[in-house]
Design brief:
Layout (H helix, E strand, L loop, with lengths): L1 H55 L3 H10 L2 H18 L6 H22 L6 H16 L3 H12 L1
Length: 155
């Protein structure tokens, strides 16, 4: 008698719990995907418009900083192009993780430059940007295998 009761109770309990478990991760996962995509778009806009554009149009504020470091306009344009490429790549699915890692590396360099040339005046900004970039790199790491397959196919 207890044998028939236990499976019936187990089935009822599992069917009552299953829809909740099955629905919750889907809704949460969808919200997480939307939040991550929004974060990527915001960061891409930041890198393209607020960071790369002033360097690429040689805005006086950007030119002054690079002259102070002794890098001149060549260094300014190189960093601007790297930021522009990284910002655009954040929006391309197969490049998202790699772009986030590359921009993180660029931010480590920006942190060092802020400390050495500008006495740490804005040193927190690159560190703050590394956090969402690391999140994107980790969350989109599955695309690295796709990128590797594409590179191997071309080789």
């Amino acid at each position: 008698m207890s044998e028939t009761t236990v499976p019936a109770t187990r089935t009822a309990a599992s069917s009552a719990v299953s829809p909740v478990i099955a629905e919750s991760p889907t809704a949460r996962g969808r919200r997480a995907r939307i939040a991550l995509r929004t974060l990527q778009v915001v960061l891409a806009l930041f890198y393209v418009i607020a960071s790369a554009l002033p360097k690429l149009i040689a805005h006086p504020s950007a030119a002054e900083g690079f002259d102070k470091m002794g890098w001149g306009s060549a260094g300014m344009y190189i960093i601007g192009v790297l930021e522009l490429a990284g910002g655009i790549a954040l929006l391309i699915p197969v490049l998202q993780s790699v772009a986030a890692m590359a921009l993180s590396g660029l931010m480590v360099g920006a942190f060092v430059v802020q400390l050495t040339y500008f006495d740490g005046e804005n040193a927190a900004t690159p560190l703050i940007l590394i956090v969402p970039l690391a999140l994107i790199a980790w969350a989109r790491r599955g695309h690295n295998a796709d990128l590797l397959r594409l590179v191997r196919r071309r080789a």
